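Slides due. Your pick:
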Amino acid sequence: MRQSSGGVSCFEAGGIAIVLFIALALMLLGTAGTVLPVVPGLPLVLLGMIIYGAVHGFAAVGTDLMLLAVVLTLASVVLDYLAVVLGAGRARASRQGMLGALVGGVVGVAALGWIGLLVGPPIGAVLGEVSSSRTLKQGLRVAVATVMGMAATAVLKLAMAGTLTAMFVLRVT
């Protein structure tokens, strides 16, 4: 087989480029997924790193970067649920309001898919507040705070995904 100037065959160089392309495509899709409710954000970034590492050896990615990616991915999953509760808590929601926001997110996703992720927590927060004898105005305030918590989490996850992707590119290219 013909050799390129670096001592790697043209076929091998093409294979390296394809795997890098797939990894980067997954990572960019994951980065977009941090703000798009349909797409799993950081899990796709991690998957891109795992695919590249599985083919080219994890030493190419680095144990430290892989560990950081795993930790941030797990943190992002926890943040998705905490954002709803913390946002509601910030508006001094009742216990029922915070629980309503959390349950609204779970039921919303189960019933309506990604749209439910957007509308479930605020609706659940309002229902929880009203069920605890609070006013509709307080319920709406908690709903707005819940949405703001979700938005803040999306920005944080976007920064985490962007940072991981940049660190990966700097390591492997």
Q: What stands out?
A: Helices lie at 10-33, 41-56, 58-61, 63-90, 95-112, 114-131, 136-172. The radius of gyration is 21 Å. The chain has one domain: 10-172.
